[in-house]
Amino acid sequence: DAGVIQSPRHEVTEMGQEVTLRCKPISGHDYLFWYRQTMMRGLELLIYFNNNVPIDDSGMPEDRFSAKMPNASFSTLKIQPSEPRDSAVYFCASSPSSGQGSKNIQYFGAGTRLSVL
Amino acid sequence: AQSVAQPEDQVNVAEGNPLTVKCTYSVSGNPYLFWYVQYPNRGLQFLLKYITGDNLVKGSYGFEAEFNKSQTSFHLKKPSALVSDSALYFCAVRGPSAGTASKLTFGTGTRLQVTL
After folding, report:
1. What is d(CA B7, CA A24) in angstroms, rounded to the nearest whole number?
2. Mean pLDDT throughout B72-95?
3. Which of A14, A111, B12, B65 has a Cα-to-Cα distance from B6 of 20 to 30 A?
4. Exposure b/e, A20-37, CB count within 10 A at least 16 = b
5. Which of the residues A24, A43, A48, A108 would you substitute to probe the B interface, choosing the one with the greatest number of B C-beta atoms within 10 Å?
6. Long-range contacts of B59-65 (CB under 8 A, 24+ apart)
């Protein structure tokens, strides 16, 4: 398996623009997580899905952020409008709910580095 | 609420020497504990986990961790450090009642620097 795939790897945009980050989880994984990493705040969980349904979005900073998972192989995190303080690395991770060895382990993508000017 | 503390922002070790990266946790019930490593410009990679069983857990790249329930600790160790071990290390915890794979709480990370 290719692992968790995120796109784009880098995104530079101007304040006020819409940004869409994409994630393809590992096939067969039924949990998907979106994280944000900054120097100041460390690694923060934004939202997670189980079987394509959002379970906990309490980490989403504000209404400008939204996430969807239309099917088991694709999720998006959208920021509209973007602000400079949204600049961070955004990670997607997926996890299986079963499996002798891999259960409970989250597998991370390489991340999207977002810069909002 | 569950939490993790990594008291050291950075640990410096000479190559060949043993290393320890500290982690303490707080959770209701028996914990599920994890260590992840992050290399520059990469996502987090799973190293090892403790769910139940032996208190000494062995993981990838020669790393191991010792679960100590009385001290609520899960320190990461390696007998002989390599320069290539230099990276950012995260400890994470979740409680047993949070579902089969729901959210982890991560520590703030410890930067390990191994020098020649």
Report:
1. 34
2. 95
3. A111
4. ebbbbbbeebbbbbbbbb
5. A43
6. B59/B35, B61/B85, B63/B35, B65/B33, B65/B35
Give the nearest partner residue to A97 out of B44, B101, B109, using CB atoms: B101
Query: Measured between beta carbons, which residues in chain B are less than 8 angstroms from residue A45?
Result: 103-104
Question: Which pair of structure tokens corresponds to residue B65?
Answer: 């961790």
Asked if B110 and B8 touch (Cβ cutoff 8 Å), the reply is yes
pLDDT digits 0-9 by tens, A25-38: 999 999 999 999 99
- Distance in angstroms between the alpha carbons of the first and the last residue of chain A: 36
What is the amino acid identity at position B68?
N
CA atoms within 13 A on the CB side of A66: 8
